[in-house]
Design goal:
Length: about 190
Amino acid sequence: MFTCVRLLPSVVRQPMGSLSGGNCMSDANSGRRQPHRFEEHRYEELWQPVFFSGTTHKRRPFLTSRNVPAILTEALLQSAREHKCAVIAYSIMPDHLHYICCVVENGGNVRRMADWLKRVSGHRISRLGFKAPIWQRSYWDRHLRAHEKISHVVDYVLDNPVEEGLCAHRDEWPYSAFLGYPWENG
């Protein structure tokens, strides 16, 4: 499957990205890839699962160091509560974070949740002595389509440490969790 990306002055067809890649816009002058963002209302849709992936600045591998996983997990769950969202699954890797979340109440917004998470966790992690900036400037997000099985994306998130060779089985990785599907909680 292909997606069209408009590069000035022409249109280029490129393969759809992986789960962590998603669609991107390329800046013809700098060659930098930047994620495409939907209209704001798409980030406010109730029960719409959205996959996020954020990477540390210069891919520095410190997210699994010292107290960072606890700080990051706490900030992730706090951000979800503050923005009327729920985290479905997450995995903290040495240089990136994957998570799936959705809005659970009117007025929630998963994009604002992601922005708040980066800002607050970056501040808290830098207080541990890690040099700022903590995160790359942007992140990838992908709205899961109705025909997709969310369980496959959850598997991708939870199996990421195995795929990266950090453990033999997902249950061995201490920095990931499946928290459940909030729409099943009644």
